[in-house]
């Protein structure tokens, strides 16, 4: 490490009077920056309860391009006057503290390095960094009270001195990947929540029983019974008497549905259907699930109908559709309860050639407790070739069978053959297309799980044969973003050398190329993540071109192709002003 880089890492540089930032003034790339360039602004002032951070690396995310496309129609900045209060994007960042407010000098000091957990909460409200708070698409950033003293404590996670800037910044998107494999359904109705049990057997519920676990952690606070009789009703009322929760009977289902739909503000944490539901009823009932709601189908009959399910809400509202073919209600909550990959089974990653798809693929191949067969599909042959070049050796090292196919060449016979005639235990969807959900659903194995990782808009419907939920135990899950614990885990894995977050990098650039980089992300120009170094000024380039422009940096790439700490250090040594 040369003296210049050593001084940089220790924050021993003087602060400039002005800095560059990519402000967004409206919808469209023409409103990002001024005339395609970042704007020059006075160095931001920070208050006594704030920190001034130097942005060392910012990884570009497809979510950033959604804000550019929608402007102030984006849900996180809806209605905001972007001309007078522009957004500064960039939520995947590594920062170094350059200034500490008077009230924070006992907690922070200049030179400390942090990763920002973007999904911050303040007084119960989401206040996201890179959306509501000016983010890291700039050379400097103010870290507000929300970030260092929010609802969950500090959203600034300290990083080790040896950790690379890119390596740390990429812990944010990697945490989102990690989070998607830690989704858990409840073992019973939500404690102190609202549960609705609906009888759909025309009054004949003689064979149905409640089973054990309905009173999980004390049971729900309120239970609504609609056309429920027999042993299920008796068991619920007995538990209500013992545990002290409230039970109410309702009118006929049709009248009650109409009442709830008219109110348009009533939701349940759990909805349990006893018997064979009609598609129309299932669609209407599903709309009444609240966030993290569980809809359980308890039906021993064969169900061949299809119903439209809002897959956008599965992704953003964390809805769970669960079921059982037994007549014991609580068996619906006993099936596969976690989104962890099934050991020794077959998995299918749809859209594996994109940046996030490659992260999922890398994780799937790298884990000893994961599947032994991995099908990776994409519609772009060049991306598949890139994936093969990067990950075929990893699959071989881990003794796993990696199969690459252009999605246009898939046939039912091929899919069944790859999955040994049993279907896939795990299917991970990276493309926000309802038709892909409908197709993938057909190839789930018994107890299989379809993980909707792609950001499908709320209101996007997929028509699915819901008999697979109760008949085969198949499940739908989804997740959006990550929590602090996911970030801590991911950063710790990277710093311990167990997760190579930098393997996701496909291109790098300096501050003046950030706009070009985001356009590249929007257009799928790069088959991996784009990392911008705001303190440096150099062209945007894929790693494969480094040998022509920065040969000393290229010589440090892992295996001649992977970004790493050593290559990053060489970049700073050569280009720091």
Structure characterization notes:
This protein has 577 residues and is α/β, with parallel strands linked by helices. The chain has three domains: 15-180 and 484-541, Quinone Oxidoreductase, Chain A, domain 1; 194-338, Rossmann fold; 346-435, Rossmann fold, CATH 3.40.50.720. Strands 4, 6, 7, 10, 11, 26, 27 and 28 form an eight-stranded mixed β-sheet that branches.
Using brief descriptors, characterize the structure shown.
577 residues; alpha/beta; Quinone Oxidoreductase, Chain A, domain 1; Rossmann fold; 8-stranded mixed beta sheet; 6-stranded parallel beta sheet; 19 helices; 28% helix; globular
Question: Which blocks of ≥5 consecutive residues have pLDDT under 50?
Answer: none
Quaternary class: single chain
> Separation of termini?
15 Å
Radius of gyration based on Cα positions: 26 Å
Q: How much helix, percentage-wise, in residues?
A: 25-40%
Q: What's the CATH H-level homologous superfamily of the largest domain? A: Medium-chain alcohol dehydrogenases, catalytic domain
């Amino acid at each position: 490490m040369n003296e210049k880089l050593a001084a940089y890492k220790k924050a021993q540089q003087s602060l400039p009077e002005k800095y560059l930032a990519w402000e967004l003034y409206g919808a469209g790339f023409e409103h990002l920056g001024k005339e395609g360039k970042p704007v020059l602004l006075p160095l931001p002032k920070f208050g006594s309860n704030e920190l001034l951070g130097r942005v060392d690396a910012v990884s570009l995310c497809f979510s950033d391009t959604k804000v550019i496309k929608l402007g102030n129609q984006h849900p996180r900045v809806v209605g905001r006057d972007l001309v007078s209060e522009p957004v500064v994007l960039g939520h995947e960042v590594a920062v170094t503290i350059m200034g500490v407010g008077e009230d924070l000098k006992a907690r922070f000091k200049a030179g400390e390095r942090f990763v920002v957990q973007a999904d911050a909460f303040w007084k119960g409200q989401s206040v996201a960094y890179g959306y509501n708070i000016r983010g890291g698409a700039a050379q400097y950033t103010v870290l507000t009270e929300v970030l260092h003293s929010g609802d969950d404590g500090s959203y600034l996670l300290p990083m080790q001195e040896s950790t690379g800037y890119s390596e740390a910044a990429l812990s944010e998107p990697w945490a989102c990947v990690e989070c998607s494999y830690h989704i858990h359904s409840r073992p019973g109705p939500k404690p102190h929540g609202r549960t609705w049990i609906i009888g759909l057997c025309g009054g004949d519920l003689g064979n149905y029983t409640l089973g054990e676990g309905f009173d999980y952690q004390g049971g729900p606070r309120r239970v609504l019974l609609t056309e429920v009789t027999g042993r299920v009703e008796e068991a619920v009322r007995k538990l209500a008497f013992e545990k002290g929760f409230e039970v109410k009977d309702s009118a006929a289902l049709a009248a009650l549905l109409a009442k709830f739909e008219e109110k348009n503000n009533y939701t349940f944490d759990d909805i349990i259907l006893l018997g064979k539901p009609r598609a129309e009823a299932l669609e209407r009932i599903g709309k009444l699930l609240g966030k993290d709601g569980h809809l359980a189908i308890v039906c021993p009959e064969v169900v061949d109908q299809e119903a439209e399910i809002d897959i956008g809400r599965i992704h953003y509202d964390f809805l769970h559709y669960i079921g059982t073919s037994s007549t014991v209600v609580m068996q619906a909550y006993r099936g596969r309860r976690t989104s962890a990959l099934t050991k020794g089974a077959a998995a299918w990653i749809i859209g594996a050639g994109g940046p996030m798809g490659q992260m999922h693929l890398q994780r799937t191949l790298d884990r000893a407790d994961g599947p032994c067969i991995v099908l990776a599909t994409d519609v772009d042959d060049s991306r598949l070739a890139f994936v093969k070049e990067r990950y075929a050796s990893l699959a071989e090292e881990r003794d796993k069978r990696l199969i690459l196919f252009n999605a246009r060449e898939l046939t039912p016979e091929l899919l069944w053959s790859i999955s040994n005639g049993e279907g896939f235990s795990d299917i991970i969807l990276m493309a926000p297309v309802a038709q892909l959900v409908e197709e993938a659903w057909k190839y789930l194995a018994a107890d299989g799980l379809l993980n909707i990782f792609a950001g499908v808009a709320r209101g996007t419907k997929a028509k699915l044969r819901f008999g697979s939920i109760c008949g085969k135990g198949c499940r739908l899950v989804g997740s959006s973003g990550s929590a602090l614990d996911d970030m801590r885990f991911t950063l710790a894995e990277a710093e311990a050398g167990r997760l190579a977050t930098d393997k996701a990098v496909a291109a790098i650039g300096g501050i003046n190329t950030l706009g070009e980089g985001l356009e590249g992300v929007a257009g799928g120009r790069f088959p991996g993540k784009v990392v911008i170094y705001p303190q440096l000024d150099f062209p945007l380039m894929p790693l494969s071109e480094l040998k022509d422009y920065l040969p000393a940096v290229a010589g440090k790439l892992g295996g001649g192709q992977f970004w790493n700490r050593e290559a990053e250090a060489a970049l700073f040594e050569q280009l720091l002003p």
